[in-house]
Amino acid sequence: MSRIPTTFAALAVRGRKALIPFITAGDPHPDLSLPLMRALVAGGADIIELGVPFSDPMADGPTIQRASERALAHGMSLRRVLALVGDFRKEDAMTPVVLMGYANPIEAYGVEAFAQDARTAGVDGVLVVDYPPEECAAFAAVMKQVEIDPIFLLAPTSTEQRYGEVAQIGSGYIYYVSLKGVTGSGNLDLDEVARRIPLIREKVGMPVGVGFGIRDVATAARIAAVADAVVIGSRIIEEIESGDAEAAPQRVTTFLRGVRAAMDGEKP
User: Fold this and answer.
1) CATH number of 3-263
2) Cross-strand pairs, 150
């Protein structure tokens, strides 16, 4: 079993929701990726989503696209992402790490080889944006064989039939895309999210995290009130971009501490 179910169980006992921040591996420079992962944990991350940079993304908005471009320009690859996770595991044996990316790098690597190397590195989950559940039962089975959770997306347009398909082969948690659009988009309908989450949770039987469009502490707090996890990506990349690269880990930690406090109901 991966670290993800035990993390959610421990949070539930404490009455807390999971904070899941996203960064792109290799951005703004590979040498800063490990310090940034440490910074996420220091800021209150319960699970880390680590983006695998890819040249042709379909779900990422301009902010995360820029992050991937910077990482690729520095030679970041899937193999180097796995090495990064291995380095992180030398000092953190507890925080789950989920790789988020696209099918092409995994197919090029080889699914079986990727599964084994990811397990050795200490990966807990894999979210592959362009692996829909009806086309990747075999991939999900390979991941589960090495105790890595295959995590799937659901969207506002997803049907109850799709909920069932995801429930059959997914594990760990569900990533609910809170709006129609790419990462970092606006127009988040919080009331619609609140209506959707109970039904999704009932149908899939696993925790539901909400991401896309969460840009401030107030929104994070409202999402935490109805979901099991809050996923924040583009806003963190903007913190990384906002000033001197060497100081990015401290900026990220400071921002996340505010989010964590808001999710826990603490007054500023």
Assistant:
1) 3.20.20.70
2) 126
